[in-house]
Amino acid sequence: MSQVSNSSGLRTWITSQPWRLWGHQVMAVVQQELKRNLFTPRATWVYLLAFGPVVILAIDAMQGPGCLSCSLDEDTTVLAAIFQLYYLRLGIFFGVMGIFTWLFRGQIVQRTLHYSFLAPLRRELLIIGKFLAGALMATVLFGAGVLLSFSLVYWHFAARGYDYVFHGPGLEQLAAYLGITALACIGYGAIFLTLTIIFKNPVIPGIVMLGWETFSGVFPAMLQRLSVSFYLKHLCPVSAPADGILALLTVVTEPVAAWATVLGLLLLASVALAVACIRSRTLEISYSSEQ
Amino acid sequence: MNAPAQNRILFENVSKFYGEVLGVNRVNLSLSAGVTSLVGPNGSGKTTLMNLMTGLIRPTNGAISVLGIAPSQPEKLARVLGYCTQFDSFPPGLTGREFIHDWLRLHGFNHQEAGRLTEDALARVELTEAADRKVAGYSKGMRQRIRLAQAISHHPTVLILDEPLNGLDPQARAASIALFEALGKEGMHVVISSHILHEVDRISDEVVLISSGYIVAEGKIPDVRTEVKEHPMQILVRCAQPELLASRVFAQNHAVEGKLQLDGKGILIRTTNADEFYSLLNRLIVEDGMQVEAVAPADDDVNSVYQYLIGSDGERI
Questions:
Q1: Which chain B residues touch A123 with a CB distance below 8 Å?
Q2: Could you give the C-alpha distances from A281 to A126, A127, A155, in angstroms and in order?
Q3: What architecture (CATH level 2) is domain B4-223?
Q4: How many CB atoms lie within 10 A of CB A113?
Q5: At A240, phi and psi to the nearest 5?
Q6: Which of B89, B99, B143, B157 to probe the A interface (max A CBs under 10 A)?
Q7: Measured between CB atoms, does A285 come within 8 Å of chain B?
Q8: Are the Cβ atoms of A118 and B102 closer than 8 angstroms?
Q9: Beta partners for B234?
Q10: A101-155, pLDDT tens digit by residue?
Q11: Which end of chain A has less neighbouring CB within 10 Å, N or C?
Q12: Does domain B232-298 sit in CATH 3.50.50.60?
């Protein structure tokens, strides 16, 4: 009896919420955040992080297509190393850190956060809108960087590269790289957004997180699940060779199914966002003391 | 929530501490519709009170309700409340029109409705012509007005204005005061903090005096003035026989001082009992046929009340 009344109460609650209004408000936040952050001089270094390898690969590709002395397997491995050691560990990590910490800190530094707080907008919707804008921006920039890097590596091989991409495992690997990029942006983004809301200065927790993500490979299995890199490493389509300390960054300690890693990462991001939403309800505007 | 609470702004034993620093302490207030002036020296807690009632900060103790809505529910409160803050900062790169339009989009208005409300608000503060210029290029007065336009753009029933006359030229100041007065007469709750006491005095229905985080006095200005017993009331009487009035007044023990006007056609009386003075004046007019041109309290305004209760140096007396 009580289960029936509980489910009917939940249904009533769900149907009575202004979902359409919330949708419009979240979209407005996303549009304004993209306008404010995507095409500004401040975003230059994020573009550099996203497209730095592209420039290097483009210079390499200028040797001309159809390089006969080059090895396709070798360059596939090089691409895997660029993706795992540069994009996942450096580019996306710091790019996402810059984008997501600025979503709130930027408004605090510019003393404009009160405008958002004075709109009839649930704080949770503000968090979700900012998160979606950050995730979209990071995924588009780093996804484009990865896509261009991939294209340049195989364009270099002309017909052999075309065969590898369209008649071999290439497209599947590209899809995996782009999917991992999106997941990395979502996972790191949710955690950085939450850190920004909890800590006045997110740089120190950011450094702690970098250490955690770097060395999580040597932690017990349970603790490894609390790192984003744990989930991402399992999804990489090609193993990256790494020796010495770099092996820490690529080693896969315990095999996990792909669906479980995706689900696990999304769950981790959801928990982080839920914490941010709860904390946001008690956020106060106090620019002088927060800066 | 009972009916009166839904028409009032209520503070119940509200305190706010920033760490160990006192913002406001044990504030009890009940503000009705009309224009209320929040008066006090710098650092007295005016902005803290305003930030508390708009939900930008949360009280350490006590409860606040604005027309029956708790400030912890911004999704409800901000529909009925507009706040023109003192923060002279804007999202970078926006024109005046975009600034208001973007904010209205956060309310959930569609482009068309947000556009219409934006134009209405711009017209009300006379900024339509400058609306397509970047806010960063506005003068201080224009920035003040664009913030005011934003605060009223969604037609709130409560308007909170933190030093809204700062930076305005005399013409814009007069227009703003007329606007506040009109909004107060329309039945809105308009709460204004200002240092320009003689100007807010003209339009204020009630005054809240605050000093060092404590409410010193609250209510209609004449009532507050009457409560200040230690400072005799000053009443200016313009009449043909000020000497006669002076002699009769000083025959009673409530008169403290009388100053004849230089033109010999008036007298400024300081009295500890205004009611008795007015009774005496009535008798003189009726029984002795005294010709009285005008009678007016000379220190029955926000400025005098401020001076008596807080003092010119901002220290509470």
A1: 74
A2: 11, 10, 51
A3: 3-Layer(aba) Sandwich (3.40)
A4: 22
A5: -100, 130
A6: B89
A7: yes
A8: no
A9: B270
A10: 999 888 988 999 999 999 999 999 999 999 999 999 999 999 999 999 999 999 8
A11: N
A12: no
